[in-house]
User: Fold these one by one.
Assistant:
Number 1:
Amino acid sequence: MSFEKIGLIKPLLDAISELGYTEPTVIQERAIGLVLAKKDIFATAQTGTGKTAAFMLPIIQRLRDNKPLAPKAVRVIVMTPTRELAMQIEEETKKYAKYMDLSIALLVGGKSLESQEKRLQDGIDILIATPGRLREHIIKKSIVLEALEIFVVDEADRMLDMGFVTDIRLIHAELPRRHQTLLFSATYTDKVRKLSRLILKKPEFIETAKQNKTVEAINQQIYLVDADRKAQLLSFLIGSRNFQQVLVFTKTKKSADILVEELKLDGLKAEVIHGEKTLAQRNKTLTKFKKKELNVLVATDIASRGIDIEQLPQVINYELPSVAEDYVHRIGRTGRAGHDGEAITLLDINDKEQMKVIERLIHVKIPRSEIKGFEVDITKKADQDDLKPKRPKKAPLKQTHVKKGTGKSVQKKIAAAPKKAPTQKKRKTTKRDGR
Ligand code: ADP
Ligand code: MG
């Protein structure tokens, strides 16, 4: 299917062909026609599948009548969780609307309310906003929503994880009765489902991502390691396996900064992107990474949202995300478009419970192993039961029986345990996931 066949008009076709889009992605192929037909949509599609164009191209087409705008009126609102994402959407929208005469504006925190009010005064065709700031302007009555035609909730799952549910509800309550709502989400969670019931009317469902299933082409691995040796292990893996372009996730900005310094000390070309870097800094880093001038990019979850890098061979979870769904987003950056990818988690005892939560979410038990020379110190971590089968206290496991270094050894150890704890049983049944 081509963009032409989907029914896009010439000014849009010209704009996207200049951007090098030759064919629509799956989500675009399925969503564009429905948006043009004024349907409400509930779409789930993984990160990087082209959701922005899936809603924005038909939206722009819908606005081609160039209706005059009443003061403070807005025709379309696109709501997205972070400032950075909003800026990216604005940028893309401007490119798509290059040959159309539309007013496009950004409404995010960090700018003065007054300057934004001024901008809103003459009316806006497409407003791209983060929830908090949008709500402020609605309360201040600097926006008139009566003529709103389309309301887009982008990255709904993320928005809910970030605690924006009340803002979304309040904004939704202010919208006129007749409008079209488009809900996009990378994952299909209960929270998103609940929101969809609240804000959508007879929606069309587009599901291109299976429910919290991670892409099959991704080889997921867990390496058990002591917390204080993680950075060393990471350097070792990158060096010994000759990783050329690896994305490493940390939970916090602070640990991202610390890690990147350690990697640099090990002679690796590494840089960090997180929320405290400016957009310009992040883009510069990203460009270097894409050109492989950098081999390691250390990122936090929020900063990584919207990063677009084709087919990364490796993603490493240096620390697990506190929101389990983020694991899916993280590893979705590898194994794209049919290419094999590898997602490695360096798991220390502190993240053990969270790992289980993630595995329950994705319905996969990921094989665990250790890297020779970085084995978990059992004497130090007496309760590291991923390694040490539960035994009566009087009969401690003799270390001499334990062969380390492969996933199989873990299985063996379990098999050798006299009493099998339920968690261990579970592990056995998931042998099929082992690779
Ligand atoms: P998502 O929101 O699903 O994570 P984006 O909308 O940010 O994905 O798109 C990811 C990248 O793919 C962007 O750089 C975008 O310009 C590009 N892109 C979108 N649609 C196409 C297409 N049909 N052909 C080629 N590139 C595309
Ligand atoms: Mg997006």
Number 2:
Amino acid sequence: AKKYYKGYIRPFIRVGPHGYFWMAGFGDHAEDIYNLEVRPDDIWVVAFSRSGTTWLQELVWLIANNLDYDGASSTSLSARYSFIEFPTQAPEIRKEKPPSGQKHHSATVNDFRNLHTLPSPRFIKTHLPLSLLPPKLLDTAKVFYVARDPRDVAVSFHYMHQLFRYFDEGVEFTEFWELFKKDLLIHMPIFPHIEEAWAKRDHRNMMFLFYEEMQKNILSVIDKVSEFLNKEYSTEQKEKLAKHLSFENMKKSSQFNFGKTADKESEIKFLRKGKSGNWINYFNTEELRKEANDYIEKHIKNSDLRFPEIN
Ligand code: A3P
């Protein structure tokens, strides 16, 4: 992994019960994050990268905020949610100088050290697994978790590595998949990340969702989330929200397209394809497809975790 993440993340560390691969700086702050004070009216959105975090954030925020579309369009998603571990991977903490002409790196809302100053209700986003978050989190606040078929995550994660130039050099998907399988990518391993949340899916404060379920029936997810947050909306309001949350609509908005290259038509976007089962096009030999299926089976063999059928 050192070879691949050369300039970007060094040194990296392995933390938590499953040896999660995290970036420089996290080790210094893991304890502070673990000890963060959770408020009962906090709303947390937790997911492995590329699993639908952004999509779920927008859905949850609007439902919790009485469908305030004006608020949603006038304030970017990254200002509406604190991405708590962000500064631990940001240059400021890696002790690099801010870009010339800038005094600070921008990360105020997205800094766990400022969390106690934010008004309630706070909206918090994280890619950290539950075991690295405050142990009282679930007993105190509402938590949304979204999981996605790891094969689709792998494809999307590969694009993200290109978008954010995580690697110094381009890596073909097949090579990336080898790293994915061996948990040699940031945030890995993915299965324990999902399993930790899956194990808590019946907790009164946990709403566990699948990306595939959101794809299949966004209206029923809107219903579930509304009920969970004690909100009631009319059919019309829910249909309007479903339209707002469509891939085509969200893709149009610059606030969901992070990353340097996002505004250029021909290049990779943060909102890329927005489909389930698209992995099949990247695992393009019989052998690779079998291997991908075996990989999933091996990991769910001793568990009752099952990703929803997509057809
Ligand atoms: P793809 O790269 O497969 O398109 P995260 O926000 O966790 O990083 O997840 C990003 C993935 O969610 C990307 O997957 C992105 O396109 C998809 N996504 C974001 N908004 C979506 C939406 N409204 N509908 C469907 N997929 C969406």
Number 3:
Amino acid sequence: MKTLTVLVPAYNEEESLHYLYDRIFSVLATMPTYNLELLFVNDGSKDNTLSIIKQLREQDKRVSYVNLSRNFGKETAMIAGLDYAKGDAVIILDADLQDPPELIPEMVQYWEEGYDDVYAKRRSRKGETWFKKATASLFYKTLKRMSQVPIQENTGDFRLLDRRCVEALKQLRETQRYTKGMFSWVGYKKKEILFDRDPRISGETKWNYGKLVDLAIEGVTSFTTSPLRISSLMGMGVSLFAFIYMVWIIFKTLAFGESVQGYPSLMSAILFIGGIQLIVLGIIGEYLGRVFNETKRRPLYFIDEYNEERETNVELPF
Ligand code: UDP
Ligand code: MG
């Protein structure tokens, strides 16, 4: 019998967990031919999330959990979950029920047909402001143009992954993770299904614009070095312009002499070039920062506990 793992990263989700449990298992009840595992990764929640998960585990041994030592963020929580998932296929699902579990049977069906990565693409984004939609779409367009890896637009982390994909993702152990890009990067046979994303069932989104900007920069710097290339091209363009301008000034001075003038042009040139230099330094800094973080080679996360048995304390997966 094949095993399906439903992987749920959870951070302060106490209100939705019971609904989530009920909905997932009422869906999975329609698929009696599989072993099931519901794996929660508690990402350092500050509310009762962990005790609710433990309570569910008491009632139902199909529930298991990994408790991280602090809040590491969703990207890291997901890799922790993939490390501990036992399933032949892993379905990643948000704890707030924005990703309807009712899609799971369809995903599994495609998986049985031989697809390795069945991802759910949003037909609509209910409960999100037009500003968020617009910025998200702009970001995807830019990223797609800059990087060689095609990144699926309007697709979250809600997807079914075959064991092959899971093993591949487990080998990508970079500290600053942009999982959305990694799903594409590892390749394998992909299948898209469409769905309507619901507004979250309770609580608030953990994303704010600061974090989204971080994620966007993460997305760009982890998947393409083209900003560095653009900087070089920009530098060349500006120097070429400066050279032509210089020739013109020398010619003008020789031909017509020079009464002291040119404060505005001098000032704008200095400011313009100074600005460009700062931007380019910043871009180089972003990449250097990544190099700095990756070379430390720290483990991605620490486990506080795993189920009750603490089975895997012996073989921490890194
Ligand atoms: N999450 C997490 N760690 C965090 C933030 C979020 O594990 O630091 C989980 C959260 O519990 C939820 C999922 O990631 O299951 C998506 O979070 P959220 O709903 O806040 O994001 P959104 O749906 O708004 O993109
Ligand atoms: Mg959500």
Number 4:
Amino acid sequence: MHVVLLVLISLFFCCKAYTNELNLFTSRHYPSDLILFEKFEEKTGIKVNLINAKSKVLEKRLLDEGAKSKCDVLFLADAGALYSAEKKKLFTKYNETRPLKLIPSSLKNEYWIGVTKRARIVFYNPSLIDYNEIKNFSYEDLSNSKWRKSIAIRQSNNIYNQSLVASIIEHKGENFTKKWLNKLVKNFSRKPQGNDRAQILSVAAGESKLAIANTYYYALMLSGKKGEEQKKAALKVKPIFPNQDGRGTHINISGAGILKFSPNKKNAQKFIEFLLTKDAQTLLCNSSFEFPIIENVPTNKLINNLKNFKEDIFINVSSYGKRQAQAFKLMKKAGWN
Ligand code: FE
């Protein structure tokens, strides 16, 4: 009798544990995301098990494990990385419930959905360049011979750069982009190197006149979390949001999708809905300095000061993924190391 009861109890706990779990693969690396996942656990009773690694590593593991994978949600930075996982048939379609409907159609497709936004913009040094010289700046202007040996940017293997170039191809076509790239590489102030923050540092030091970097790295530097020196450097530069009098500034997302072999698909759907709540958006953005993807989300002032600009909503971010290989080829051909 006791044995039967024990078996029943253990069966109950085993199944309960099973249905109340969520296995999350994420390339995000912010300690405060853990607070967010605890909140989800508190609210729903669903335990979040986290695996954190670079997107390519997560993708490979999912491919290796195939149908045996226990992972439910894949949460990655850059639409190109999401597209890559989609192409490998790792996702299943999500349900477009109310909170998911609120996300603009240019920031999602049927397999994955944007959770936060970031913009890839230009930074200049106001002690070297007058604001009037740059106020109507566009990405197209980056190839102007006026900026010869002036631009700091990272290497062509960087996915953010590939997405940016993919967006130029999408808007202006391959021929234009080829010519644009050939001139752009002549405008590099140095051999592309380092991360996004390194480009801002180069402008702050006066080594380069313009830097290309994502908005959240600038806010991160200003926050002081990367040390006093980086904070001081960030205070020396100013952001310019390109193409404000045209199509708008290039934006990208970090986003998530439900995995095809997910054993807890309902929990996965719930988790994505939770990420799109105001509370979750505040926490996500205050840790990463990205922009919230829904309206009227309270965030800290480093984000608020940056977030009012015209975004390029004319192309779907999934087109970055589609054109990334083409973009990379053209970048290499132009001599972008
Ligand atoms: Fe980043």
